[in-house]
Design goal:
The chain has a domain of 80 residues: GIY-YIG endonuclease. It has 4 helices and 3 strands; from the N terminus they run H-E-E-H-E-H-H. The chain has a 3-stranded antiparallel sheet with strand order 2-1-3, with helices on both faces. The N and C termini lie far apart (80 Å). By secondary structure, the protein is an alpha+beta fold. About 6% of the residues have low confidence. The longest helix is centred in the N-terminal third of the chain and has 17 residues.
Length: 127
């Protein structure tokens, strides 16, 4: 049969030496590419389109440059709805937790949930 080449991969626990190599590689990678660094906080951001009032949720380590990118270059979704304003940010210690939170925000879905987040983050006026 032609299935002889299919072999179930063997899961081998990492040795202490392999773990230290992974840490070294990750550390070197973060020196070469600062966006890979796990010690930098990661932000969830919400943008509101000034064109049609729609929202965009994303994650980044540099909010200012990301907002600038959306307003100048854009992505497939954001370039058609420019200009964008930053209406909400949330800081997380690592990319994993930020992406989980981004997914939760998107899963809750809906304009009402996003607007409640924005409203809760704004200080109340005492006028």
């Amino acid at each position: 049969m032609f299935t002889d080449w299919l072999v179930t991969p063997r899961i081998v626990p990492l040795s202490e030496r392999d773990r230290s190599r992974q840490k070294l590689i990750k550390g070197l990678t973060s020196l070469v590419n600062p966006f890979y660094s796990s010690c930098m906080p990661v932000f969830i951001y919400i943008l509101r389109s000034l064109k049609d009032g729609s929202y965009y949720v994303g994650t980044t380590q540099d909010v200012d440059s990301r907002v600038k990118h959306h307003n100048e270059v854009g992505t497939q979704y954001t370039k058609q709805k420019r200009p964008w304003e930053l209406v909400y940010t949330e800081e997380h210690p690592d990319r994993s937790s930020a992406m989980q939170r981004e997914y939760a925000i998107k899963k809750h879905g809906g304009r009402q949930f996003i607007e409640s987040l924005i409203k809760k983050s704004r200080p109340m006026n005492n006028d």
